[in-house]
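Protein in question reproduced for absentees:

***
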Amino acid sequence: MEGIGMEKEVVFGEKNRIYGTLSLPAGEGVYPAILLIAGSGPLDRDGNVGNGKLTTNLYKELAEFFTGLGFVTLRYDKPGTGKREGNWMAAGMWDLVGDARTAVEYLQANPNVDKERIIVAGHSEGTILATALGKSMPLGGVIFLSGGVDNLFEALSKQRELGSNELLAKPVLGKFFKLINVAQKSENSAAKMMEKFKQSKEDIVKVQIFFKQPAKWYREHGAFNTREALKSMSCPVLAVIGDKDHLADKEVLAELPSLVKGKSEFAIIKDMEHGLRIQTEELSILKSGKRFKEILKRPLHPEALSKLEGWLNENYLANNHKEHVG
């Protein structure tokens, strides 16, 4: 372990200034780098929601782990979070991809970074953004954390299916839910709302009079073909997901080796949830809200960290080689 030599706030991007945190390993030298791309919602560079509404520190902990292994790391605020101006809900998928591209370019210009070994690590929605970024520019590697292969609409459909199946499995209420066809009604409602987003040209629309929704974000995600984008990716790819993840589909990761040009692998970690922490309780989307605060107290899953460390060491640290560029 290298240890963290320095951590500092940085600002980059000409038009829409992006605030982030750059962490450097201890000691002089040029290092490979990892860019962290956050999941959906108003998450700042550390994985938190402002004013103490939600504190996960997921990306802060991951950055500390990666920097300790010997990587420069960069994490940054999404629009309207942390120190950054803007409205996170008005940002479309391609706005977020543009932010990630700007961040990669910032790393490329850093004298402490090996430009040929810049890895993008996306979490949740960040796996889709990393996929889109990998299609548009060469990357030294890609890590999918709690996601990968499918697009947003497929992931949301799987979430609704899991929720409906749990409701139908209830001993007494299950028969009632089946009688009123709760699964089909859920899909019909989702389809109706998505159609409203597609017909709109606004960044944000209101549904049920009061509730604002990121229409531009949904439209752009719905039009993006993740599998086609993956076919152009020739850098090493690693996907890590938990078997207790209620938000991402584990089964689709089996498609990864047949999609990407470069070498790829995926790992399904036993007793790990969507936020990469330990969860020994059963998989349940209906109980996830009640468990959330308790799970946040738990450490990042050691088996997942071990998998990441082994893959990074093999591909980017062993013999200090530089041959992997996608």
Observations:
- Strands lie at 4-12, 18-25, 31-37, 72-76, 113-123, 141-145, 205-207, 211-213, 237-242, 264-269.
